[in-house]
Seed maturation protein (Trema orientale), 94 residues
Amino acid sequence: MRAIGIDLTQPGGIGAVAQSAATQNTRTLSELNKTTISDVLGDATKKLPADKAVTREDAEGVIGAEIRNKPDMSTSPGGVAASMAAAARLNQNK
């Protein structure tokens, strides 16, 4: 929702697919059979109806999600959170 600037989940959209995959993954025992982030986001630019610049709030949300989902409560250097933070900084300076 935040990525395209609207406040609803579009049926069949990336958010809906990601939520469905997350639910299904909790029921899947084999790690090999779980849906990955790249499965969901592989062609994201083709699926998004619009695009918007990354904001500080967007980056903070991604950083929080990455921290919550790692046992050591950290982000990965060069990972998604770091990329979002860098994009937000660049956009803030424009």
Summary: The CA atoms of residues 67 and 74 lie 5 Å apart. Residues 52-93 form one domain. The chain has two domains: 1-50, 52-93.
